[in-house]
């Protein structure tokens, strides 16, 4: 039996590690690069608390140690009917396919009108460019998302760190944070005290929250919001609307949405195909934790079918550690359908926890099976 994994990020490598614990069959990972970075820690690049090399590991080397094949190649076409994937290194067939290629961040960022006047706080290139700008500018800073962007946690962190850098440099500049929800920071969380406490904290830090606003267009030195209001800023950092990569959409697996339609909590898209992480359609934010949980659930589903072994299935929820310069915070929101757990606290020590966990992720090539999630019962 052949298991094919497209992508070597949080979801893809989690699949490979967990599959190998239960099967001895052929497992192949295909990725454009063997150099993988743990990007949830990228905000700390802005304050020199970490170095780029501390975020990197060699995925091919890690997979070879597990007797998992690793191919450094570009995916050209996905052909579900023939169970094949065409790549820059030829065709690969499969019995089960795991789509874990992440979201189309770069291609969607370039669709934003005036994108060249902004940076994107997702890629390493974007963070390094943002760092250079923040330590040089004497002007205002704008941070926000395009309408439909499924994750705002990184934007919260950038706003906090930008405020810290401006304060540390003695620059009297405004920091604007636009949130898609009219309730403000963590607005989508269905608990009033969470966003009320979060908004209060951000406002005490001197950040101007533009509630219920998204980016429509970027011009030189200003942002046009969805209500046509213009906000002047010298540094503009935004996240685009997300979707599955174009090569995935061409395969027909995405049906009528921009994402791969999956059943939860199994993340099964078709009988022999699973859609994981950022490219899967879910009601939850796209985070590294959610990507790893999607991989855990997909493999648990398959191992039960193939081996009859019952493994835990987890809820997605939200776990966000916010780095904020000289402070930090943590939000947890999890539910198993009956019980709900929520936490929001601010304390500098949370950055230390985040740095320790990031080092573990890098050292183990994302082989960290416990994600602090609640167990759920699979849907029949």
From TrEMBL:
Annotated Pfam families: Pyr_redox_2
Residues in FAD/NAD(P)-binding domain copies: 2-292
InterPro entries per UniProt: FAD/NAD-bd_sf (IPR036188), FAD/NAD-binding_dom (IPR023753), SQRD (IPR052541)
GO molecular function: oxidoreductase activity
Protein name: FAD-dependent pyridine nucleotide-disulfide oxidoreductase
Organism from which the protein derives: Metallosphaera cuprina (strain Ar-4)
């Amino acid at each position: 039996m052949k298991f094919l994994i497209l992508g070597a990020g949080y979801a893809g490598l989690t699949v490979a590690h967990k599959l190998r614990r239960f099967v001895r069959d052929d497992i192949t990972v295909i990725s454009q690069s063997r150099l993988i970075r743990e990007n949830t820690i990228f905000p700390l690049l802005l304050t020199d608390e970490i170095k780029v090399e501390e975020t990197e590991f060699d995925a091919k080397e890690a997979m070879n140690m597990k007797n998992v094949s690793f191919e450094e190649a570009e995916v050209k076409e996905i052909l579900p009917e023939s169970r094949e994937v065409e790549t820059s290194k030829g065709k690969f067939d499969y019995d089960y396919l795991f789509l874990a290629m992440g979201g189309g961040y770069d291609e969607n960022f370039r669709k934003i009108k005036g994108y060249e006047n902004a940076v994107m706080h997702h890629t390493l290139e974007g963070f390094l460019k943002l760092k250079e700008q923040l330590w040089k500018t004497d002007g205002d800073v704008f941070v926000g998302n395009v309408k439909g962007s499924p994750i705002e946690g990184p934007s919260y962190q950038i706003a906090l760190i930008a405020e810290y850098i401006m304060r540390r440099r003695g620059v009297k500049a405004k920091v604007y944070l636009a949130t898609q929800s009219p309730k403000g920071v963590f607005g989508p969380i269905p608990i009033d005290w969470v966003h009320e406490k979060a908004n209060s904290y951000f406002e005490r830090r001197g950040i101007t929250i533009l509630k219920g606003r998204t980016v429509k267009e970027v011009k030189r030195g200003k942002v046009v919001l969805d209500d046509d209001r213009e906000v002047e800023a010298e540094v503009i950092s935004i996240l685009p609307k997300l979707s599955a990569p174009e090569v995935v959409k061409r395969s027909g697996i995405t049906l009528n949405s921009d994402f791969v339609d999956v059943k939860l909590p199994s993340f099964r898209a078709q009988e022999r195909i699973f859609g994981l992480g950022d490219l899967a359609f879910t009601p939850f934010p796209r985070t590294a934790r959610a990507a790893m949980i999607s991989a855990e659930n997909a493999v648990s589903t398959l191992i039960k079918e193939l081996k009859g072994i019952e493994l835990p299935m987890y809820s997605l929820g939200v776990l966000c550690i916010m780095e904020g310069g000289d402070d930090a915070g943590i939000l947890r929101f999890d539910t198993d359908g009956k019980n709900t757990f929520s936490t929001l606290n601010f304390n500098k020590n949370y950055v230390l926890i985040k740095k320790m966990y990031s080092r573990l992720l890098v050292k183990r090539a994302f082989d960290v099976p416990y994600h602090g999630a609640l167990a759920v019962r699979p849907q029949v």
